[in-house]
Amino acid sequence: MSETYEFVVVANRLPVDEVVGADGGRSWARSPGGLVSALQPIVRGHGGAWVGWTGQPGDAPEPFDTDGMHLHPVGLSEDDVDRYYEGQSNGTIWPLFHDAVEQPTHRRPWRQAYESVNRRFAEAAAQLTAVDGTVWVHDYQLMLVPAMLRELRPDLRIGFFLHIPFPPVELFMQLPRRAELLRGLLGADLVGFQRPLAAQNFLQLTGRLLGLDPQEQHVEYDGRTVTARAFPISIDVAEVEKLAADPDVQAEARRMRHELGGDRRLLLGVDRLDYTKGIEQRLEAYGELLADGTVSNDDVVLVQVATPSRMRVQEYQELRARVEHQVGRINGEFGAVGQAPVHYLFQSMNRAELVALYLAADVMVITPLRDGMNLVAKEYVAARYDDQGALVLSEFAGAAAELTTAFQVNPHDVEDIKRALMDALNADAGEQAERMRPMRDQVRDHDIDRWAQDFLTALGKS
Ligand code: ADQ
Protein backbone atom coordinates (compact mmCIF):
# COMPACT_ATOMS: atom_id res chain seq x y z
CA MET A 1 0.00 0.00 0.00
CA SER A 2 1.31 3.47 -0.85
CA GLU A 3 2.17 6.06 1.80
CA THR A 4 -0.70 7.98 3.41
CA TYR A 5 -0.95 11.44 5.02
CA GLU A 6 -2.79 12.80 8.07
CA PHE A 7 -3.68 16.12 6.43
CA VAL A 8 -4.39 16.64 2.75
CA VAL A 9 -5.20 19.85 0.88
CA VAL A 10 -7.15 19.51 -2.37
CA ALA A 11 -7.15 22.54 -4.67
CA ASN A 12 -7.40 23.10 -8.42
CA ARG A 13 -3.77 24.22 -8.50
CA LEU A 14 -0.73 22.79 -6.82
CA PRO A 15 1.20 25.32 -4.68
CA VAL A 16 4.08 25.37 -7.19
CA ASP A 17 4.74 26.67 -10.69
CA GLU A 18 7.02 25.02 -13.18
CA VAL A 19 9.96 27.25 -14.10
CA VAL A 20 12.28 26.77 -17.03
CA GLY A 21 15.87 27.79 -16.28
CA ALA A 22 18.34 29.49 -18.65
CA ASP A 23 19.79 26.06 -19.48
CA GLY A 24 16.31 24.78 -20.41
CA GLY A 25 16.12 22.67 -17.24
CA ARG A 26 12.75 22.47 -15.51
CA SER A 27 12.11 22.85 -11.80
CA TRP A 28 9.33 23.81 -9.39
CA ALA A 29 9.09 27.11 -7.53
CA ARG A 30 6.59 27.84 -4.79
CA SER A 31 3.66 29.89 -6.13
CA PRO A 32 3.32 33.42 -4.77
CA GLY A 33 0.27 34.25 -2.70
CA GLY A 34 -1.02 34.20 0.84
CA LEU A 35 -2.96 30.97 0.61
CA VAL A 36 0.12 28.95 -0.22
CA SER A 37 2.26 30.59 2.44
CA ALA A 38 -0.49 30.06 5.05
CA LEU A 39 -1.15 26.43 4.24
CA GLN A 40 2.40 25.33 3.56
CA PRO A 41 3.54 25.33 7.24
CA ILE A 42 0.35 23.52 8.25
CA VAL A 43 0.75 20.89 5.57
CA ARG A 44 4.44 20.52 6.43
CA GLY A 45 3.76 20.46 10.19
CA HIS A 46 1.32 17.58 9.77
CA GLY A 47 3.54 15.75 7.29
CA GLY A 48 0.82 16.46 4.80
CA ALA A 49 0.08 16.26 1.11
CA TRP A 50 -1.43 18.53 -1.55
CA VAL A 51 -3.49 17.32 -4.50
CA GLY A 52 -3.79 19.66 -7.50
CA TRP A 53 -3.14 20.42 -11.15
CA THR A 54 0.20 21.76 -12.43
CA GLY A 55 -1.45 24.40 -14.63
CA GLN A 56 -0.27 22.68 -17.84
CA PRO A 57 -2.43 20.34 -19.92
CA GLY A 58 -1.15 16.79 -20.41
CA ASP A 59 -0.23 13.78 -18.34
CA ALA A 60 0.43 14.35 -14.66
CA PRO A 61 4.07 14.28 -13.56
CA GLU A 62 5.00 11.74 -10.90
CA PRO A 63 4.21 12.80 -7.31
CA PHE A 64 7.13 14.53 -5.60
CA ASP A 65 8.16 16.12 -2.30
CA THR A 66 9.08 19.77 -1.88
CA ASP A 67 9.23 22.26 1.04
CA GLY A 68 8.23 19.45 3.41
CA MET A 69 5.03 18.70 1.47
CA HIS A 70 4.09 15.71 -0.65
CA LEU A 71 2.66 17.02 -3.92
CA HIS A 72 0.33 14.81 -5.92
CA PRO A 73 -0.38 16.17 -9.43
CA VAL A 74 -3.71 15.45 -11.12
CA GLY A 75 -3.52 15.44 -14.93
CA LEU A 76 -5.92 17.46 -17.11
CA SER A 77 -6.12 16.88 -20.85
CA GLU A 78 -6.62 19.79 -23.29
CA ASP A 79 -10.30 18.83 -23.38
CA ASP A 80 -10.51 18.87 -19.57
CA VAL A 81 -8.96 22.33 -19.51
CA ASP A 82 -11.50 23.53 -22.09
CA ARG A 83 -14.53 21.97 -20.45
CA TYR A 84 -13.90 21.58 -16.73
CA TYR A 85 -11.67 24.63 -16.13
CA GLU A 86 -12.48 27.28 -18.73
CA GLY A 87 -15.99 25.93 -19.33
CA GLN A 88 -17.93 24.81 -16.26
CA SER A 89 -15.69 26.50 -13.66
CA ASN A 90 -15.00 29.84 -15.36
CA GLY A 91 -17.81 30.09 -17.94
CA THR A 92 -20.71 28.81 -15.81
CA ILE A 93 -20.03 28.86 -12.06
CA TRP A 94 -17.74 31.93 -11.86
CA PRO A 95 -20.16 34.38 -13.55
CA LEU A 96 -23.26 32.92 -11.87
CA PHE A 97 -21.71 33.12 -8.41
CA HIS A 98 -20.71 36.75 -9.09
CA ASP A 99 -24.29 37.98 -9.47
CA ALA A 100 -24.27 36.98 -13.16
CA VAL A 101 -22.51 40.24 -14.07
CA GLU A 102 -21.66 38.33 -17.27
CA GLN A 103 -24.14 35.87 -18.71
CA PRO A 104 -23.28 32.32 -17.53
CA THR A 105 -23.10 29.68 -20.30
CA HIS A 106 -24.62 26.26 -19.67
CA ARG A 107 -23.22 23.27 -21.58
CA ARG A 108 -23.78 19.57 -20.90
CA PRO A 109 -20.25 18.44 -21.91
CA TRP A 110 -18.82 21.03 -19.50
CA ARG A 111 -20.87 19.60 -16.63
CA GLN A 112 -19.81 16.08 -17.53
CA ALA A 113 -16.14 17.06 -17.59
CA TYR A 114 -16.55 18.91 -14.27
CA GLU A 115 -17.94 15.77 -12.71
CA SER A 116 -15.27 13.46 -14.07
CA VAL A 117 -12.40 15.78 -13.11
CA ASN A 118 -13.87 16.24 -9.61
CA ARG A 119 -13.96 12.43 -9.33
CA ARG A 120 -10.29 12.24 -10.27
CA PHE A 121 -9.40 14.70 -7.50
CA ALA A 122 -11.59 12.84 -4.98
CA GLU A 123 -10.01 9.48 -5.88
CA ALA A 124 -6.51 10.90 -5.48
CA ALA A 125 -7.39 12.33 -2.04
CA ALA A 126 -9.08 9.06 -0.99
CA GLN A 127 -5.97 7.12 -1.86
CA LEU A 128 -3.56 9.53 -0.12
CA THR A 129 -5.28 10.28 3.19
CA ALA A 130 -4.52 8.25 6.32
CA VAL A 131 -7.30 6.52 8.30
CA ASP A 132 -9.33 9.15 10.22
CA GLY A 133 -7.29 11.89 8.53
CA THR A 134 -8.40 15.39 7.52
CA VAL A 135 -8.95 16.77 4.02
CA TRP A 136 -9.40 20.45 3.20
CA VAL A 137 -10.95 21.03 -0.23
CA HIS A 138 -10.77 24.49 -1.86
CA ASP A 139 -13.00 26.49 -4.11
CA TYR A 140 -15.58 26.50 -6.86
CA GLN A 141 -13.73 24.19 -9.25
CA LEU A 142 -14.14 21.28 -6.81
CA MET A 143 -17.59 21.54 -5.27
CA LEU A 144 -18.50 17.88 -5.96
CA VAL A 145 -15.35 16.56 -4.28
CA PRO A 146 -16.59 16.51 -0.65
CA ALA A 147 -19.49 14.12 -1.41
CA MET A 148 -17.43 11.95 -3.74
CA LEU A 149 -14.70 11.69 -1.12
CA ARG A 150 -17.15 10.94 1.69
CA GLU A 151 -18.54 8.05 -0.31
CA LEU A 152 -15.08 6.59 -0.82
CA ARG A 153 -13.82 7.37 2.69
CA PRO A 154 -16.53 7.83 5.33
CA ASP A 155 -13.85 7.87 8.07
CA LEU A 156 -12.40 11.27 7.07
CA ARG A 157 -12.98 14.78 8.45
CA ILE A 158 -13.72 16.90 5.38
CA GLY A 159 -13.64 20.70 5.20
CA PHE A 160 -14.49 22.86 2.22
CA PHE A 161 -13.79 26.57 1.72
CA LEU A 162 -15.35 28.66 -1.04
CA HIS A 163 -13.13 31.61 -2.01
CA ILE A 164 -15.74 33.32 -4.18
CA PRO A 165 -19.22 34.58 -3.22
CA PHE A 166 -22.11 32.14 -2.89
CA PRO A 167 -25.09 33.47 -4.84
CA PRO A 168 -28.55 34.35 -3.58
CA VAL A 169 -31.10 31.53 -3.72
CA GLU A 170 -32.86 32.78 -6.87
CA LEU A 171 -29.63 32.85 -8.87
CA PHE A 172 -28.39 29.47 -7.68
CA MET A 173 -31.74 28.01 -8.77
CA GLN A 174 -30.78 28.73 -12.41
CA LEU A 175 -27.98 26.15 -12.39
CA PRO A 176 -28.65 22.90 -14.20
CA ARG A 177 -28.08 19.94 -11.80
CA ARG A 178 -28.18 22.40 -8.91
CA ALA A 179 -29.18 19.81 -6.27
CA GLU A 180 -26.17 17.70 -7.15
CA LEU A 181 -23.82 20.61 -6.54
CA LEU A 182 -25.44 21.24 -3.17
CA ARG A 183 -25.13 17.57 -2.21
CA GLY A 184 -21.50 17.78 -3.29
CA LEU A 185 -20.82 20.46 -0.68
CA LEU A 186 -22.88 18.66 1.96
CA GLY A 187 -20.34 15.85 1.82
CA ALA A 188 -18.16 18.11 4.00
CA ASP A 189 -18.39 18.41 7.80
CA LEU A 190 -17.62 22.11 7.60
CA VAL A 191 -18.39 24.43 4.67
CA GLY A 192 -16.65 27.81 4.96
CA PHE A 193 -17.60 31.03 3.18
CA GLN A 194 -16.20 34.55 3.03
CA ARG A 195 -19.34 36.19 4.46
CA PRO A 196 -22.18 35.15 6.79
CA LEU A 197 -24.76 35.92 4.12
CA ALA A 198 -23.19 33.34 1.82
CA ALA A 199 -23.47 30.68 4.53
CA GLN A 200 -27.12 31.65 5.03
CA ASN A 201 -27.82 31.40 1.30
CA PHE A 202 -26.32 27.93 1.29
CA LEU A 203 -28.29 26.74 4.33
CA GLN A 204 -31.51 28.19 2.97
CA LEU A 205 -31.00 26.28 -0.28
CA THR A 206 -30.66 22.98 1.57
CA GLY A 207 -34.21 23.58 2.78
CA ARG A 208 -35.56 24.74 -0.54
CA LEU A 209 -33.91 22.17 -2.82
CA LEU A 210 -33.44 19.13 -0.60
CA GLY A 211 -36.20 19.59 1.97
CA LEU A 212 -33.71 19.68 4.86
CA ASP A 213 -34.27 21.63 8.05
CA PRO A 214 -31.33 24.05 8.55
CA GLN A 215 -30.85 25.58 12.03
CA GLU A 216 -28.62 28.61 12.61
CA GLN A 217 -25.21 27.41 11.36
CA HIS A 218 -26.00 23.73 10.97
CA VAL A 219 -28.00 21.27 8.96
CA GLU A 220 -28.55 17.56 9.54
CA TYR A 221 -27.87 15.55 6.43
CA ASP A 222 -27.43 11.86 5.89
CA GLY A 223 -27.05 11.19 9.62
CA ARG A 224 -24.34 13.85 10.05
CA THR A 225 -24.24 17.48 11.14
CA VAL A 226 -22.88 19.84 8.49
CA THR A 227 -21.77 23.27 9.72
CA ALA A 228 -21.80 26.32 7.39
CA ARG A 229 -20.07 29.49 8.61
CA ALA A 230 -18.11 32.50 7.50
CA PHE A 231 -14.30 32.54 7.74
CA PRO A 232 -13.18 35.78 6.05
CA ILE A 233 -9.82 35.09 4.42
CA SER A 234 -6.86 37.41 4.91
CA ILE A 235 -3.25 38.01 3.92
CA ASP A 236 0.25 37.35 5.17
CA VAL A 237 0.47 40.66 7.03
CA ALA A 238 4.06 40.11 8.22
CA GLU A 239 5.26 39.63 4.64
CA VAL A 240 3.65 42.86 3.43
CA GLU A 241 4.85 44.81 6.48
CA LYS A 242 8.40 43.55 6.01
CA LEU A 243 8.43 44.67 2.38
CA ALA A 244 6.91 48.04 3.27
CA ALA A 245 9.66 48.61 5.85
CA ASP A 246 12.43 47.71 3.38
CA PRO A 247 14.43 50.85 2.44
CA ASP A 248 14.83 49.60 -1.15
CA VAL A 249 11.06 49.23 -1.53
CA GLN A 250 10.52 52.70 -0.06
CA ALA A 251 13.12 54.15 -2.44
CA GLU A 252 11.33 52.43 -5.32
CA ALA A 253 8.04 54.02 -4.18
CA ARG A 254 9.65 57.48 -4.22
CA ARG A 255 11.16 56.81 -7.64
CA MET A 256 7.77 55.77 -9.02
CA ARG A 257 6.12 58.91 -7.68
CA HIS A 258 8.83 61.08 -9.17
CA GLU A 259 8.61 59.39 -12.58
CA LEU A 260 4.84 59.84 -12.65
CA GLY A 261 5.20 63.56 -12.00
CA GLY A 262 6.23 64.50 -8.46
CA ASP A 263 3.28 66.70 -7.57
CA ARG A 264 0.52 64.69 -9.16
CA ARG A 265 -1.73 62.73 -6.81
CA LEU A 266 -1.53 59.03 -7.58
CA LEU A 267 -4.64 56.86 -7.92
CA LEU A 268 -3.97 53.11 -8.12
CA GLY A 269 -5.93 50.08 -9.34
CA VAL A 270 -4.51 46.53 -9.05
CA ASP A 271 -6.67 43.67 -10.27
CA ARG A 272 -6.67 40.45 -12.18
CA LEU A 273 -8.15 41.49 -15.53
CA ASP A 274 -11.64 40.16 -14.79
CA TYR A 275 -15.11 41.50 -15.56
CA THR A 276 -16.06 41.17 -11.89
CA LYS A 277 -13.48 43.77 -10.86
CA GLY A 278 -15.34 46.82 -12.18
CA ILE A 279 -12.35 48.21 -14.09
CA GLU A 280 -14.52 49.70 -16.84
CA GLN A 281 -16.77 51.56 -14.39
CA ARG A 282 -13.68 52.91 -12.61
CA LEU A 283 -12.18 54.19 -15.86
CA GLU A 284 -15.50 55.69 -16.84
CA ALA A 285 -15.72 57.61 -13.57
CA TYR A 286 -12.14 58.85 -13.89
CA GLY A 287 -12.70 59.85 -17.52
CA GLU A 288 -15.77 61.87 -16.53
CA LEU A 289 -13.87 63.66 -13.76
CA LEU A 290 -11.27 64.68 -16.35
CA ALA A 291 -13.93 65.63 -18.89
CA ASP A 292 -15.90 67.85 -16.53
CA GLY A 293 -12.70 69.47 -15.24
CA THR A 294 -13.12 68.28 -11.63
CA VAL A 295 -9.58 66.89 -11.89
CA SER A 296 -6.85 67.64 -14.40
CA ASN A 297 -4.01 65.68 -15.96
CA ASP A 298 -1.62 68.10 -14.24
CA ASP A 299 -2.91 67.18 -10.80
CA VAL A 300 -3.70 63.45 -10.88
CA VAL A 301 -2.60 60.25 -12.53
CA LEU A 302 -4.15 56.78 -12.47
CA VAL A 303 -1.95 53.68 -12.54
CA GLN A 304 -3.99 50.62 -13.46
CA VAL A 305 -2.22 47.27 -13.13
CA ALA A 306 -4.19 44.45 -14.73
CA THR A 307 -2.81 40.94 -14.35
CA PRO A 308 -3.40 38.75 -17.40
CA SER A 309 -5.95 36.08 -16.50
CA ARG A 310 -7.92 33.34 -18.31
CA MET A 311 -6.88 34.83 -21.62
CA ARG A 312 -8.15 31.83 -23.60
CA VAL A 313 -11.73 32.61 -22.55
CA GLN A 314 -13.53 34.84 -25.03
CA GLU A 315 -15.16 37.15 -22.44
CA TYR A 316 -11.70 37.95 -21.06
CA GLN A 317 -10.28 38.77 -24.50
CA GLU A 318 -13.24 41.06 -25.13
CA LEU A 319 -12.83 42.73 -21.75
CA ARG A 320 -9.15 43.36 -22.46
CA ALA A 321 -10.01 44.99 -25.78
CA ARG A 322 -12.65 47.23 -24.15
CA VAL A 323 -10.39 48.29 -21.28
CA GLU A 324 -7.49 49.07 -23.60
CA HIS A 325 -9.78 51.04 -25.87
CA GLN A 326 -11.03 53.07 -22.90
CA VAL A 327 -7.48 53.76 -21.68
CA GLY A 328 -6.46 54.86 -25.17
CA ARG A 329 -9.45 57.16 -25.44
CA ILE A 330 -8.80 58.84 -22.07
CA ASN A 331 -5.10 59.30 -22.80
CA GLY A 332 -5.82 60.55 -26.31
CA GLU A 333 -8.34 63.09 -25.13
CA PHE A 334 -6.79 64.35 -21.89
CA GLY A 335 -3.07 63.56 -22.19
CA ALA A 336 -0.17 65.85 -23.06
CA VAL A 337 3.20 65.08 -24.62
CA GLY A 338 5.17 63.21 -21.94
CA GLN A 339 2.24 63.13 -19.49
CA ALA A 340 -0.62 60.62 -19.65
CA PRO A 341 -3.57 60.54 -17.23
CA VAL A 342 -3.64 56.71 -17.21
CA HIS A 343 -0.66 54.36 -16.96
CA TYR A 344 -1.90 50.92 -17.87
CA LEU A 345 0.21 47.83 -17.15
CA PHE A 346 -1.05 44.49 -18.46
CA GLN A 347 1.44 42.35 -16.57
CA SER A 348 2.26 40.45 -13.43
CA MET A 349 4.47 42.07 -10.80
CA ASN A 350 6.64 40.80 -8.02
CA ARG A 351 5.61 41.43 -4.42
CA ALA A 352 8.20 44.16 -3.82
CA GLU A 353 7.06 46.19 -6.85
CA LEU A 354 3.44 45.80 -5.79
CA VAL A 355 4.14 47.01 -2.25
CA ALA A 356 6.17 49.95 -3.63
CA LEU A 357 3.09 50.93 -5.65
CA TYR A 358 0.88 50.65 -2.55
CA LEU A 359 3.26 52.98 -0.70
CA ALA A 360 3.32 55.43 -3.58
CA ALA A 361 -0.46 55.61 -4.03
CA ASP A 362 -2.50 58.43 -2.49
CA VAL A 363 -5.75 56.64 -3.29
CA MET A 364 -6.22 52.91 -3.82
CA VAL A 365 -9.29 52.33 -5.98
CA ILE A 366 -11.00 48.96 -5.58
CA THR A 367 -14.39 48.81 -7.25
CA PRO A 368 -15.40 45.18 -7.94
CA LEU A 369 -19.03 44.61 -8.90
CA ARG A 370 -18.78 41.51 -6.72
CA ASP A 371 -15.76 39.93 -5.00
CA GLY A 372 -15.46 37.09 -2.49
CA MET A 373 -13.00 39.08 -0.37
CA ASN A 374 -10.43 41.15 -2.36
CA LEU A 375 -7.00 40.70 -0.89
CA VAL A 376 -5.55 43.76 -2.63
CA ALA A 377 -7.59 45.96 -0.26
CA LYS A 378 -6.05 44.23 2.77
CA GLU A 379 -2.56 44.36 1.27
CA TYR A 380 -2.83 48.11 0.71
CA VAL A 381 -3.90 48.68 4.31
CA ALA A 382 -1.14 46.40 5.66
CA ALA A 383 1.50 48.28 3.63
CA ARG A 384 0.51 51.73 4.96
CA TYR A 385 2.63 51.77 8.15
CA ASP A 386 2.50 55.57 7.86
CA ASP A 387 -1.31 55.52 8.37
CA GLN A 388 -1.59 57.62 5.22
CA GLY A 389 -3.33 56.99 1.92
CA ALA A 390 -7.03 56.49 1.26
CA LEU A 391 -8.97 53.39 0.26
CA VAL A 392 -11.97 53.57 -2.05
CA LEU A 393 -13.71 50.22 -1.65
CA SER A 394 -16.74 48.61 -3.23
CA GLU A 395 -19.57 47.62 -0.91
CA PHE A 396 -19.76 44.43 -2.94
CA ALA A 397 -16.31 43.16 -1.93
CA GLY A 398 -16.21 40.81 1.06
CA ALA A 399 -13.51 43.05 2.53
CA ALA A 400 -16.06 45.87 2.96
CA ALA A 401 -17.48 44.05 6.03
CA GLU A 402 -14.15 44.45 7.84
CA LEU A 403 -12.72 47.65 6.31
CA THR A 404 -15.62 49.81 7.38
CA THR A 405 -13.72 53.10 7.50
CA ALA A 406 -12.80 52.95 3.81
CA PHE A 407 -14.54 55.32 1.39
CA GLN A 408 -17.21 52.80 0.48
CA VAL A 409 -18.88 52.99 -2.86
CA ASN A 410 -21.59 51.43 -5.03
CA PRO A 411 -19.47 50.32 -8.01
CA HIS A 412 -22.48 50.17 -10.34
CA ASP A 413 -23.06 53.89 -9.86
CA VAL A 414 -20.51 55.97 -11.77
CA GLU A 415 -21.64 59.16 -9.97
CA ASP A 416 -21.00 57.48 -6.65
CA ILE A 417 -17.50 56.38 -7.74
CA LYS A 418 -16.76 59.98 -8.76
CA ARG A 419 -17.98 61.20 -5.38
CA ALA A 420 -15.85 58.64 -3.49
CA LEU A 421 -12.75 59.44 -5.56
CA MET A 422 -13.10 63.14 -4.79
CA ASP A 423 -13.77 62.51 -1.08
CA ALA A 424 -10.65 60.35 -0.96
CA LEU A 425 -8.52 62.89 -2.85
CA ASN A 426 -9.73 65.67 -0.57
CA ALA A 427 -9.15 63.84 2.73
CA ASP A 428 -6.45 65.61 4.73
CA ALA A 429 -3.68 63.79 6.61
CA GLY A 430 -5.75 63.71 9.82
CA GLU A 431 -8.77 62.12 8.18
CA GLN A 432 -6.59 59.64 6.30
CA ALA A 433 -4.99 58.49 9.57
CA GLU A 434 -8.35 58.28 11.36
CA ARG A 435 -9.70 56.02 8.64
CA MET A 436 -6.55 53.97 8.10
CA ARG A 437 -5.74 53.11 11.73
CA PRO A 438 -8.81 50.98 12.51
CA MET A 439 -8.42 49.16 9.20
CA ARG A 440 -4.78 48.39 9.96
CA ASP A 441 -5.72 47.10 13.42
CA GLN A 442 -8.40 44.88 11.92
CA VAL A 443 -6.08 43.34 9.29
CA ARG A 444 -3.18 42.86 11.71
CA ASP A 445 -5.45 41.07 14.21
CA HIS A 446 -6.91 38.86 11.51
CA ASP A 447 -4.14 37.60 9.29
CA ILE A 448 -4.12 34.49 7.15
CA ASP A 449 -2.64 32.26 9.84
CA ARG A 450 -5.52 33.08 12.13
CA TRP A 451 -7.94 32.35 9.30
CA ALA A 452 -6.45 28.90 8.68
CA GLN A 453 -6.32 28.14 12.42
CA ASP A 454 -9.94 29.21 12.92
CA PHE A 455 -11.10 27.01 10.08
CA LEU A 456 -9.13 23.97 11.19
CA THR A 457 -10.20 24.40 14.82
CA ALA A 458 -13.84 24.49 13.73
CA LEU A 459 -13.19 21.38 11.66
CA GLY A 460 -11.79 19.69 14.75
CA LYS A 461 -8.18 19.72 13.60
CA SER A 462 -5.69 22.12 15.10
P1 ADQ B 1 -8.72 37.05 -6.91
O1 ADQ B 1 -9.96 37.27 -7.70
O2 ADQ B 1 -7.52 36.67 -7.69
O3 ADQ B 1 -8.95 35.98 -5.74
P2 ADQ B 1 -7.73 39.02 -4.86
O4 ADQ B 1 -8.35 38.58 -3.60
O5 ADQ B 1 -7.65 40.48 -5.00
O6 ADQ B 1 -8.48 38.47 -6.14
O7 ADQ B 1 -6.26 38.42 -4.92
C1 ADQ B 1 -5.38 38.77 -5.94
C2 ADQ B 1 -3.94 38.49 -5.51
O8 ADQ B 1 -3.12 38.62 -6.66
C3 ADQ B 1 -3.44 39.52 -4.50
O9 ADQ B 1 -2.64 38.88 -3.54
C4 ADQ B 1 -2.60 40.50 -5.33
O10 ADQ B 1 -1.51 41.06 -4.67
C5 ADQ B 1 -2.13 39.61 -6.46
N1 ADQ B 1 -1.99 40.42 -7.69
C6 ADQ B 1 -2.92 41.18 -8.28
N2 ADQ B 1 -2.41 41.79 -9.37
C7 ADQ B 1 -1.14 41.41 -9.46
C8 ADQ B 1 -0.07 41.69 -10.37
N3 ADQ B 1 -0.21 42.48 -11.44
N4 ADQ B 1 1.10 41.09 -10.16
C9 ADQ B 1 1.28 40.26 -9.11
N5 ADQ B 1 0.33 39.97 -8.23
C10 ADQ B 1 -0.86 40.53 -8.40
C11 ADQ B 1 -10.01 35.08 -5.37
C12 ADQ B 1 -11.35 35.74 -5.11
C13 ADQ B 1 -11.20 36.84 -4.09
C14 ADQ B 1 -10.58 36.28 -2.80
C15 ADQ B 1 -9.34 35.48 -3.10
C16 ADQ B 1 -8.83 34.74 -1.87
O11 ADQ B 1 -11.91 36.24 -6.32
O12 ADQ B 1 -12.45 37.44 -3.81
O13 ADQ B 1 -10.22 37.38 -1.98
O14 ADQ B 1 -9.59 34.52 -4.11
O15 ADQ B 1 -9.82 33.96 -1.29
Automatic annotation (TrEMBL):
Domain of life, per lineage: Bacteria
Coiled coil (UniProt feature) = none
Gene, per the UniProt record? otsA_2
The record's CDD domains line, in alphabetical order, gives:
GT20_TPS (cd03788)
Tell me which family the UniProt entry assigns to this protein: Belongs to the glycosyltransferase 20 family.
Give a Pfam family name.
Answer: Glyco_transf_20
PANTHER family given in the database record: BCDNA.GH08860, TREHALOSE-6-PHOSPHATE SYNTHASE
* Protein name per its UniProtKB record: Trehalose-6-phosphate synthase
